[in-house]
Every structure is written in structure tokens, then in C-alpha cells.
Specification:
The structure is a homodimer of 332-residue chains. The first copy, chain A, has 9 helices and 13 strands. Chain A is an alpha/beta fold and 332 residues long. Chains A and B meet through helix 7 of A and helix 7 of B.
Chain lengths: 332, 332
Amino acid sequence: MEKTYVIGIDLGGTNTELGLVRSDGHIVARTILSTAKYTDFPTFADDMVKAAGELCAAGDPETGWQGTVNDLQGFGIGAPNADPNRGCMVEPPNLKQFKGVSNFVEEFRRLGVTVPVAVDNDANAAAVGEMVYGGAQGMQHFIMITLGTGVGSGIVVDGKLVHGSTGTAGELGHNILIPNGRKCSCGRYGCLETYTSARGIVQTFIEVRHEMGTPADVDEHPGWIGSEVTDAEVHSITVGIASNAGDPRAIETFRRVGYWLGIACANAVTFSAPECIFLMGGPTKVGEPLLAPLRKSFEEHLLNIYQGSCRIEMSKLKTNEVAILGAAALVN
Amino acid sequence: MEKTYVIGIDLGGTNTELGLVRSDGHIVARTILSTAKYTDFPTFADDMVKAAGELCAAGDPETGWQGTVNDLQGFGIGAPNADPNRGCMVEPPNLKQFKGVSNFVEEFRRLGVTVPVAVDNDANAAAVGEMVYGGAQGMQHFIMITLGTGVGSGIVVDGKLVHGSTGTAGELGHNILIPNGRKCSCGRYGCLETYTSARGIVQTFIEVRHEMGTPADVDEHPGWIGSEVTDAEVHSITVGIASNAGDPRAIETFRRVGYWLGIACANAVTFSAPECIFLMGGPTKVGEPLLAPLRKSFEEHLLNIYQGSCRIEMSKLKTNEVAILGAAALVN
């Protein structure tokens, strides 16, 4: 099969990374732009297309391929608040400099790009990346849940991303898990995100240590969180480290997070009966302290007719590749 | 366009109704079998095919069409615990006489039926009926929620029923709405069904009247539920009548049911972003006492990006036609 090439773009609040991706999932080369330094979208789009052109000109030393952006199979862009129908992002909350609608397709066309330009949010891109290059190859029904600052999701039904009537389906982070529960950044209460995002983990740890207190021997255990760490200084990563170091309050924190996420996963199964739910993102790296209670809760809360039909797995893509590969996989 | 004909079969615990359905959605004729009297599935299948043959032989007086079962476009069957992939039902809880797997396709083939035989659960059939003959014509994304003894659902994404990897996706009645909430017949706790089914309505009324007591002037109001009605005698239909008659406890009951169902509908939107959620079934007939608080709760709990994108509507099919038309619509 002839090798084809895609530019995958991971657009973040701080940096935007571009990668030249070969059809076998190899990232040939990468380059980074500082998103934060741009004050207007057309200049930013201009620099993205230029950077992509440089990656294409340098080409793939292994195969000898070289070209221009119009020799690509296309551009795939993972971006916040993406509208895949229009190929744009709309008022992304972490990119306040790009007001209104920032349309990638229109800007790229203006800059002479004639090949396809596909845009979607990062969780949807991750789901497609898993399907094309990762653990979901050949699956018709699966869900990707991304844990990070927020909680995102990409849902695949019959081998296709679910976009819904608005283009923005698949926001399981804002499924209300506990009616009238924790206040969410979206303005409502009890969203899954408030319990299982990095912020939710921190809040849970703070609650747990207020309940359980600080063990007398906390200073004898490297990695445990001492009383000198104020609530405002607790970070989800240090809670993760503490759980792996055996801090009982961090272990209890992830037990609760796993319990909540297990209910959410069981609920998702009543919707689309996926064969697998994949997880990715920083908080999942804690491993068993999260995964063991998560799987236990999932089994406990799964409706009997689905028992044994759906497993929970970590994403099979590398952390430093998933965003680029996911974006690249949007082109097809 | 040439008119074609389908036999739609609504298989219930007490009765099984067959209808000859013309392609324009007109039910030409119907016949009823007593499901309860059959002790084995092959005899039951035999009588279904015979009854269908009689409907075909009598034909459609309006068009002059007459034929045999093999002149049909096919058979569509709405049945409990259906497995659409295999064309069977599996251990339906209300039909204990049919043990194990009852395979419609195999039995009908044995009886000489050569045309397509499609089987699905009644909520999925209702969704397809709404899409082919009702208010969802032309919609790519919608959800049907059926309220009755239980709560069922049929989910349409990209114009197709979501069946998932198991064939049994779309069981929103068993979405856990309130973790560790009411005990459900499925053995778990807090399922939507325990709050919004006929049984859930009764339980809520009982709770509300224990909280609010019986108004002193209850006997002056026709339709209100008096203290002589024991908890065991409360029925969802009488609660519905009482709410329309102004019984404050019945009104409060449906306010709570609408509140819960509104959260469930808002959660469903985060999944597939439908343009409409249709409701059908006995408890929905109470009308505004349910619909007004439901729509209020739905708007309150809907994530901002979906505001205005999804409405809640009653099924546009007639109550006494939806089951037959839904079953018929499974054939296509």
C-alpha cells in the first residue's frame, strides 16, 4: 500500500503542536507554535500552514517522500469547542484572544490549501486515534473518556463518531452523576467532571483528609501528603503519587473517584452497549489505585444483560502521541 | 408508488396483536392471539403465521391487494427481551412459559415464511415507528422514551437505531439517576425506572402523602385520593386523574417525576445530542402536570451548548396504533 501523509494538529491553550503523520501511524516529525502569542486567528492560521509546509518540504527520510501541503491526504485538527460540521472552533474558553468563530477550513482555503481539513474536539480526536492506530482497531462500538482538567468523551457507534444534531454530542463529563451535587464550572451541579477530573480528585482529597485527619507518622512516608501542604496547594499529581506511596487518604480518594467513574461507565453502557471503554489522561496514570475500584464499581453497577460484554481499558496510544495521532486520524 | 404490506406483531405478556400495515401507515386489519394460553413457542409461532396468512388472504379492500404471507414485504415483531441480531427473544420475564431462546426467524422459516422477519424490543420498535410514520420523520438524531410498568428507550443516531455490541443498547430506564437510590427490579439501586415508571409514580405519591398528609377537604373534590385508599391500592392512573383534578399531593408527585425525568433527558442529550426526545406510554397521558415540570427541569439541567437544540414532545402516533406500526416499521 502506498504511504500517505497527514498533518495532525493538536491545538492547546499554551502550545499548538503539528506532526507529519504517515499512514502507518508513525509520526515523522513535529513542530510547535506558541498559541498564546497570537492575538488574531488569521495570523495564527497563516503560521500553522507555513509550519506544515516546512514539515512537508523536509519530508520522510525513511521513504523519501517530500511535497507541499497539497500533496497531503489532508489536515486533521483537534481543537477546543470545535464544530466539526463547520470546521471551526467557537469561543474556546482557554483561548480568549480568538473571539467568535475561528474557521480553519476558510482560513486554510484562503492560504491555498486545497486538501481536506477536518476539525473536531480533542476527546473525539482521541477516540478516532484509538480506532485508527490504537486499541479500538476493528471495534464498531466503544467510548473514549479523557480525564484531565475537565472530563471529555468521544463515542463511537457503528464505527462512526456520534456527533448528534448539533455536532457536539459526547459530553459525558457533563452528565449529571449526582443531582444537586458539586458545583461545576459549567454552572450546573453534580456533573461527572466535578468528581473525576483533576480538580475533582483534589476536592475529594481535601474532603477525605478533613474526614480522616493526617496520620501521626505522615513524615516517615516519602510521598505522603503532610499537613504543611495547604488545601490550596494540593495537586492531583501529588495525590496520585501519595496513593502509590500508600497514603491511606489518597487511596480512599481514588477509591471514591473510581466508584463514581464506575457508575458513569455503567450508565454509558445502557446507552450504546460498547465493547470497550477506553480511558486516557493524567489522572489515569495513577494506575491500580484508580482502576481497581473503578472496575469493581463498574461491575457492581452494570445492568445484568451487559455483564461480561464491556471491558475498561487504558488507551493503547502513547501519551505524547495521542493528540497528534488523534487529530491526524480525523482525516479519512 | 406501489403499496406494499407488512405484518406488524406486538407481542405482550397477555395478548399478541397482529396488524396488516400498508406502506402509507394505514392499519388495514388486526387480529389478536392470547399469548398467555400458549405453553410452547412452536405452537405459538404456528398460530402467528396462520393468523398472518388469514389477514393477507382477506387483503386490503381499498386497493384490492390480496396474497399470502410470502407476498408481504416482511414481518416486524416487537417483543420483550428481543435480540435483533438473532431474531429471537431470550427468557422474557413476563412470558415464563417460553423458556430459553425463542427464535422467530427459525420458526417462521420452518413454517414456510421466506420473506424478511425483523425482531426488536418494543421501545426500539416505537422509535422506528415514530421515524417511519410519526413525528420523527426525517430526523437523524432522536430518542424515544416509553413510560409504563418499566421505562424503555430507543435511540436513533444518524438515522439508525443504536443496537451496540450486544444488540441490546438503549436501556435508559436502567441508567442510574440517583446512586444508592430506590431499589430497582433489576437488583440495583437508583435506576431512572424506579422514579418515573408507573410503579415509581405510585411510590412517589405514597411518599408525598406521608409527607403532606391528607387534606381535610379531600372528600369535597372528585378525583382526589382519600385516606380510605391504602398505599397498596394506589395506582398510577388514579394519581394521574387526581393531578388533573388538582390534588396537591398528586401534583407534587408529578412535579418530582418531571424533575427526575428532566435530568435524565438532559443527560441523554450529552450523549447523542438528539433534536427531539419523544415520550409515550400511560403515565405521559397525564399531560401538563408531568410535562410542565419535565420541560422546566430539562431546561435547567441542560448543558449550555445544547440550549435550544432539543425539544421534548409526545409521540405523534396513536396509542392504539404505535405498537403495531412500530413493529411494522422494523421491516425495511
